Amino acid sequence: MNTESIRMAIRNGEHSGPTSGISGDKVQANLAILPKEYAFDFLLFAMRNNKPVPIIEVLEAGGFVSRYAKNSDIRTDVPLYNIYKDGELLETVSDITNYWRDDFVTFLIGCSFTFEQAILDAGINIKHIDEGRNVAMYKTNIKTEPAGIFSGDTVVSMRPFKKELVDKVTEITNEFPNMHGGPVHAGDPAAIGIEDIDAPDYGDAIEIAPDEVPVFWACGVTPQNVVLNAKPEILISHAPGHMFITDINNEEYKN
């Protein structure tokens, strides 16, 4: 199925689950939609924190068609959206048309699903994909650099790998610096402020076998964590793991 067909399946409600592994070699994007009055602060925040918030595209105020996704509609083509008002999660919906405003600025943010495909292409299995689960994501004590109203800690995604594969997956993901790049940590979760590895803040818990090491990457859910501090009037984002699928080839982001 091509990417336009996948977006249509999402728009029509035929696909409503996580998007990990469904778009082959095409880039998936995290989403952050804010009123124009917050857009400069957010763009500055992203520029200062490129690892967790690598910007792919910024749409004009009121625009909802991505230049990187044919016949797309940002308002309908993500399986699930989180609606935050004043820093609180109001609801999770499959269509934001009723929320849409002419002053909304949409940010598409790089996603680790790009480097996941590169890991799979190297013949290395990824546990949450094998198990049909959403990737496990955690709040950490890794500080971001503040900008305007935005500040807070980094969210990470975790994938366990056998000890002998950690160097290889690090090497592969380092080749995608604008898709979160290499890991920010491997090993003891407590070292980055994660108290219970079995209780992710977002996504699904993934069992870590005795011969496996948890490996952590900066994650595009970070803006959702940061917005809890900033409390803007409204933020619309993707529900973690439910991405916007573009027509861009992953290889275009490989160094």
Automatic annotation (TrEMBL):
Its EC number is 4.2.1.-. The keyword Endoplasmic reticulum does not apply. Residues 1-21 are annotated as: Disordered. Coiled coil: none annotated. Pfam families: D-Glu_cyclase (PF07286). The keyword Cytoplasm does not apply. Keywords: Lyase. One of its GO terms (molecular function) is lyase activity. InterPro entries: D-Glu_cyclase, Putative_hydro-lyase, UPF0317. Belongs to the D-glutamate cyclase family. NCBIfam families: PRK05463.1. This is Putative hydro-lyase BN1048_02180.
